[in-house]
């Protein structure tokens, strides 16, 4: 039954966000509810269980559709490919006790607040739902559910200062407190009894519970007890994991008494509400909420969120008097005014207004820290074929079992067995055909892999992604700190005077830098602080400042002309500094570095001197902000010369401010305009030692490497070449996209990057160059490089071209954090399995959306990433892929083994059912516990093969080699068991009625031996002396059981693959010892003549010749099975030949695109420019662009 969204019945929650959902309104119907209750009783709770598994069926059965306004139950459905349903009850919050009269609250609060719009008149109640820890209230006027716990986005900068600058009234605080709930991020540990019920109600555990009950009914106590113990162990492990998550994510409540409200009362942090005004005192403070800084300045440590323990400067929100919402006004720079929950305020600096004030922006789970915690509690489900195939596999086994049930009922009913016995035997077939130990066996493989990764310094918080690592075929790498060293070394300074570059000043140098504008820029243009006696901040800033030999004096307030006393940073010459004509320089105001603007600025003043602006950032951006007459004519060629050598280049600029102008009232745009170009700072960023060998290893394994960085494109290309991402013989094509001024269209240009080198390296013959490039392009040896701005324009205006560009895109430079996440998602849409490896703030989003995100930072932010490496080098990437491949192959081996073990046992039982016989309890127990459980635990010990081969293991269970392997081995087992079953009856010593006919000498002993009682089959008597037997002992039983038991060992050995993804099987000593031990016990059972043992195991004595015949049958089965597995199933060249003969091609989007582009002689275009209108029409038809609403909406809005 599907949903038909009708008017007012349906809406969208969190539209355009990652956790977007559809919401449907329902009203409980009393008659329907009564019928459902009757159904629960009549079905003995089975209907209730079904509704627990399918909440949408529960809602459709109990309720009728209605508008969301009338609804008392809502049904939620995720908008992703999984379409997961959940049911939520609507609750009512009463605020009547807080509002004395109906007009009281709206009169004091702002009319456009969601709080005033959600209070229903005259009942003074608020209708709410809670979804994934976030509370939503019903907006009466907008007729929709809206998030509370956050300040509305529509406020302008001036409105925030005016409305919230002096705090909320007590009545406003109280109402908001009741509606929003407490400001806490609490992850309660689920009580064990609740968890136990939840685990037991899992479909598989329900099946296990059914199996256990059936086994107890059949006196099969031992295995039933073993399964109960294993399940309880699994549950306790789940409790332990949840406690670990709680320890990791719980926000410890500090007794922070922060000033809040108009009366400046002291308040505990959990009482805070959006709109409250905080006064931040001096000293360390752990922030309990997200807040907008409205006066003063703060230095915070955001390592909890970003993974970078670099102090970040936060400036107050400007009092801009316009109609734009504050976020749009600040664009991507808005984070520079926001103090995030869980981050540590290290230092506060008051301005002329006297105190550092902040307005509470978000509380509880709506905060940045809360969002991080929710991403762990509610991870995005991974769509991996293995898990879908596992369910199909179980369905096939259930269908297989159904055939066996029909056969069982027919056989036993025809022979006149009691109805109860027939039902028990038929149900028994299901527990035999579907292995109850399968989930436990698969989990052990993942646990062992996790343990091996931990030993190698790689930690995993999302174990289900380990198998996915085995499929990775594209890895995105951040550059700085990931491929290159964290720290930068100052290599040189290229000063500029009067429109010309001067001689380069190299570092380290004997002669110190002379005093001048460039030196002043290096001294003040940074965001460094002194913390616990050490200079802390961005490594680039630290290196630049240390080169000047000046020191930071951060101890006192300073009188600044026209501004009164303020707490500002002062820099002074150090003991080793060259002589300077000033006592020091005061840094008055900072415009912190913004990745969107690619620059930072400071306003500084020499003690008793004039105020000046200093700006540093990306050279291209700085040059655009400078007066053209101050920029050297050879600026571009010099920049290209140094970036082509892989240097990180920073542009410097300055200007003087007019005297008497209040610096704090200046906007960033006013400050960063009409600058004078000062020169280029050249930093050396060395490759890490491990980078090149790792990238070469990935390339040899046909795993694509892509660089995604915030650095200059030329530097990025050079680093990519030095690292081996781009081969020296390959060509790089620069893709540039630009919006056409004054129109809605855009242009895109392709040009070879080599073309730019002609100015510095001498010109080549144009025809020769073109011919050489075309030759390289024809052989597919080319790479696209583009910057973030071009990527965004291509995504918006040239959508159909994007997949083509991504297919050979290797370098993506000047990428913002949002663009990095979008790029990973676009690669995923091309059916790549994408890994992301990064180390800091800019990578958090991309680490979360990738199939496998690997963080090289051990900070708390890395909890957003499924994998964290203790060593900060990319050597962990091939290690993770190796272990992922081994884990994936282990999962397949385990599936195959479990399928064969259950099928072997199933076939053996069905054969014996033909004679109204079966295996005895101890026979079942030996196969289930002593053989299968031990093999299931030890088979996964095999480690990963050290070499990465240039192909991946299969990603799905339903693959021809795997299916053929299972089917052939089932046929081998069936043939052997039927052969043994039939041939034993042809033996001269065989007697159907006398089980001692083969060994008359043991007859007397057997008569006196005790037999195992069973409620099972009876009526088979010992023909020799009329002694009642338990009904299991027969020659067929002994033959089939011994053959099937040793057959389980054969398939375990045959399926335990070694190379190329796992180490050879002999390296798994534990498994080999177990197999030898089990084989020894089985052969002992075959050849032993111990009466008590045989009696206990329900075996009968057979002649030695027959026992040898059974061993020969098993040896033949082993030889045939092993030969087929090695010569056919594992024969990769054979399968490739079959694919070629059948003209089978991969259905992956990127493979299909590759084949299409190989036939396209016009691709890639070279030295051509396209316009968005023409391209959109010509390519749309055959490419079919992708859409990424999250990226489009969020990026366009800024």
Offer a few descriptive terms:
single chain, 1198 residues, alpha+beta, 11-stranded mixed β-sheet, 10-stranded antiparallel β-sheet, 45 strands, 19% strand, disordered N terminus, disordered C terminus, translocase, EC 7.2.2.-, transmembrane, polyamine transmembrane transporter activity, Cation-transporting ATPase
How would you sum up this structure, described in words?
The chain is of the alpha+beta class. The protein is 43% helix and 19% strand. It is built from 43 helices and 45 strands. The strands form nine sheets. An eleven-stranded mixed β-sheet has the order 21-44-43-42-22-37-41-40-38-39-45, with helices on both faces. Strands 23, 24, 25, 28, 31, 32, 33, 34, 35 and 36 form a ten-stranded antiparallel β-sheet that branches. Helix 8 (192-200) crosses helix 10, helix 9 (203-217) runs antiparallel to helix 10 and helix 34 packs antiparallel against helix 39 (1104-1129). The longest helix has 38 residues, at 876-913. It is globular, with a radius of gyration of 37 Å. Mean pLDDT is 79; it is low at 1-5, 104-109, 248-252, 561-565, 755-766, 1002-1029 and 1174-1198.
Lateral strand order in the biggest sheet: 21-44-43-42-22-37-41-40-38-39-45
Q: Please, what is the average pLDDT?
A: 79
Percent of residues in helices: 40-55%
Q: Give the termini separation.
A: 41 Å
Task: Indicate the structural class.
Answer: alpha+beta
Q: Low-confidence stretches at least 5 residues in length (pLDDT < 50)?
A: 1-5, 104-109, 248-252, 561-565, 755-766, 1002-1029, 1174-1198
| Biggest beta sheet attributes | 11 strands, mixed
User: Which descriptor suits the 3D outline?
Assistant: globular
The number of distinct β-strands equals 45
Question: Mind telling me the C-alpha Rg?
Answer: 37 Å
- Number of H/I helices: 43
Approximate strand percentage: 15-25%
């Amino acid at each position: 039954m599907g949903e038909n969204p009708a008017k007012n019945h349906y809406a969208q929650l969190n539209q355009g966000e990652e956790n977007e959902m559809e919401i449907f309104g329902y009203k409980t119907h009393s008659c329907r509810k009564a019928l459902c209750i009757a159904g629960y009783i009549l079905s003995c709770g089975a209907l209730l269980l079904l509704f627990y598994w399918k909440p949408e069926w529960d809602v459709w059965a109990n309720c009728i559709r209605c508008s969301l306004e009338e609804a008392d139950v809502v049904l939620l459905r995720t908008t992703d490919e999984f379409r997961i349903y959940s049911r939520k009850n609507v609750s009512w919050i009463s605020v009547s006790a807080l509002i004395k009269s109906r007009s009281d609250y709206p009169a004091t609060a702002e009319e456009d607040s969601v709080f005033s719009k959600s209070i229903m008149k005259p009942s003074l109640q608020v209708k709410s739902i809670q979804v994934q820890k976030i509370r939503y209230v019903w907006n009466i006027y907008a007729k929709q559910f809206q998030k509370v716990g956050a300040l509305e986005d529509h406020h302008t900068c001036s409105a925030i200062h005016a409305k919230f600058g002096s705090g909320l009234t007590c009545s406003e605080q109280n109402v908001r407190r009741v509606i929003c709930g407490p400001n806490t991020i609490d992850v309660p540990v689920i009580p064990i009894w609740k968890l136990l019920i939840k685990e037991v109600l899992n479909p598989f555990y329900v099946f296990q519970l059914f199996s256990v009950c059936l086994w107890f009914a059949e006196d099969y106590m031992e295995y039933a007890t073993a399964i109960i113990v294993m399940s309880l162990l699994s549950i306790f492990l789940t409790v332990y994991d949840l406690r670990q998550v709680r320890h990791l994510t719980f926000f410890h409540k500090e007794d922070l008494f922060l000033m809040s409200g108009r009366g400046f009362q002291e308040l505990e942090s959990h009482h805070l509400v959006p709109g409250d005004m905080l006064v931040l005192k001096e000293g360390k403070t752990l922030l309990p909420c997200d807040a907008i800084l409205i006066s003063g300045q703060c230095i915070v440590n955001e390592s909890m969120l970003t993974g970078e323990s670099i102090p970040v400067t936060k400036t107050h929100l400007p009092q801009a008097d316009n109609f734009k919402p504050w976020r749009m006004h600040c664009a991507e720079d808005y984070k520079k005014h926001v103090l995030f929950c869980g981050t540590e305020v290290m230092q506060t600096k008051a301005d002329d207004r006297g105190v550092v004030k902040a307005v509470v922006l978000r509380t509880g789970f709506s905060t940045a820290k809360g969002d991080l915690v929710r991403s762990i509690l509610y991870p995005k489900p991974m769509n991996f074929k293995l898990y879908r195939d596992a369910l199909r596999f179980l369905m096939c086994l259930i269908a297989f079992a159904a055939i066996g049930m029909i056969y069982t009922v027919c056989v036993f009913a025809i022979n006149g067995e009691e109805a109860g016995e027939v039902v028990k035997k038929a149900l028994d077939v299901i527990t035999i055909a579907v292995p109850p130990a399968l989930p436990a066996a698969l989990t052990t493989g993942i646990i062992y892999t996790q343990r091996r990764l931990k030993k190698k310094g790689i930690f995993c918080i999302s174990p289900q992604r380990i198998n996915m690592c085995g499929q990775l075929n594209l890895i995105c790498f951040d550059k700085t700190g990931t491929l290159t060293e964290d720290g930068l070394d100052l290599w040189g300074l290229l000063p500029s005077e009067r429109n010309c570059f001067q001689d380069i000043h190299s570092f380290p140098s004997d002669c110190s830098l002379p005093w001048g504008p460039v030196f002043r820029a290096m001294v003040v243009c940074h965001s460094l602080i002194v913390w616990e006696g050490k200079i802390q901040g961005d490594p680039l800033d630290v290196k630049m400042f240390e080169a000047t030999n000046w020191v930071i004096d951060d101890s006192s307030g300073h009188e600044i002309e026209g501004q009164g006393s303020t707490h500002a940073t002062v820099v002074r010459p150090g003991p080793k500094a060259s002589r300077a004509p000033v006592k020091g320089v005061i840094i008055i105001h900072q415009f912190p570095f913004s990745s969107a603007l690619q620059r930072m600025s400071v306003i500084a003043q020499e003690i008793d001197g004039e105020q000046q602006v200093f700006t540093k950032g990306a050279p291209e951006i700085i040059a655009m902000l400078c007066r053209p007459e101050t920029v050297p004519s050879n600026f571009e060629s010099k920049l290209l010369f140094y970036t082509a050598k892989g240097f990180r280049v920073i542009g410097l600029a300055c200007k003087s401010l007019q005297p008497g102008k209040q610096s704090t009232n200046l906007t960033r745009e006013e400050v960063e305009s009409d600058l004078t170009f000062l020169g280029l700072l050249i930093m050396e960023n060395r490759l890490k030692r491990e980078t090149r060998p790792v990238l070469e290893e990935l390339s040899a394994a046909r795993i694509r490497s892509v660089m995604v960085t915030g650095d200059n494109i030329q530097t990025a290309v050079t680093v990519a070449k030095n690292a081996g991402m781009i081969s020296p013989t390959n060509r790089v094509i620069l893709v540039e996209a630009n919006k056409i001024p004054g129109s809605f269209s855009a242009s895109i240009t392709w040009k070879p990057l080599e073309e730019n080198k002609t100015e510095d390296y001498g010109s080549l013959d144009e025809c020769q160059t073109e011919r050489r490039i075309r030759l390289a392009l024809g052989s597919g040896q080319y790479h696209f490089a583009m910057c973030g701005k071009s990527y965004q324009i291509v995504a918006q205006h040239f959508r159909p071209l994007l997949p083509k560009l991504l297919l050979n895109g290797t370098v993506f430079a000047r990428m913002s954090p949002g663009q990095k996440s979008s790029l990973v998602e676009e690669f995923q849409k091309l059916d790549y399995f994408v890994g992301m490896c990064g180390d800091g703030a800019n990578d958090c989003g991309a680490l979360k959306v990738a199939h496998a995100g690997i963080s090289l930072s051990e900070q708390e932010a890395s909890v957003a990433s499924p994998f964290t490496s203790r060593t900060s080098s990319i050597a962990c990437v091939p290690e993770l892929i190796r272990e992922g491949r081994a884990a994936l192959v282990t999962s397949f081996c385990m599936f195959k083994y479990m399928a064969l073990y259950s099928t072997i046992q199933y076939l053996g039982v069905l054969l014996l059912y033909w004679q109204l016989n079966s295996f005895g309890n101890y026979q079942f127990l030996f196969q289930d516990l002593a053989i299968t459980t031990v093999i299931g635990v030890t088979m996964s010990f095999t480690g990963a093969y050290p070499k990465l081969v240039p192909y991946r293991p299969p990603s799905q269970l339903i693959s021809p080699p795997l299916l053929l392997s299972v089917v052939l081995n089932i046929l081998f087992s069936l043939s052997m068991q039927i052969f043994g079953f039939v041939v034993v009856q042809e033996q001269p010593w065989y007697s159907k009625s006398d089980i001692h006919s083969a060994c008359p000498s043991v007859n007397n002993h057997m008569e006196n031996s005790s037999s195992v009682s069973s409620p099972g089959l009876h009526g088979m008597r010992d023909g020799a002396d009329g002694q009642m037997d338990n009904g299991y002992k027969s020659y067929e039983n002994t033959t089939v059981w011994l053959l099937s038991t040793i057959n389980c060992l054969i398939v375990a050995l045959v399926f335990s693959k070694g190379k190329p993804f796992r180490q050879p099987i002999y390296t798994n000593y534990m498994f080999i010892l177990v197999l030898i031990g089990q084989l020894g016990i089985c052969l002992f059972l075959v050849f032993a003549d111990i009466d008590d043992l045989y009696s206990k195991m329900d075996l009968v004595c057979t002649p030695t010749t027959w026992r040898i015949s059974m061993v020969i049958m098993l040896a033949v089965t082993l030889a045939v099975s092993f030969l087929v597995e090695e010569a056919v199933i594992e024969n990769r060249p054979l399968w490739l030949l079959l694919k070629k003969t059948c003209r089978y091609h991969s259905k992956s989007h990127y493979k299909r695109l590759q084949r299409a582009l190989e036939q396209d002689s016009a691709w890639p275009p070279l030295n051509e420019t396209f316009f968005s209108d023409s391209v959109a029409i010509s390519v749309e038809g055959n490419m079919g662009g992708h859409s990424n609403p999250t990226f489009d909406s969020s990026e366009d809005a800024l």
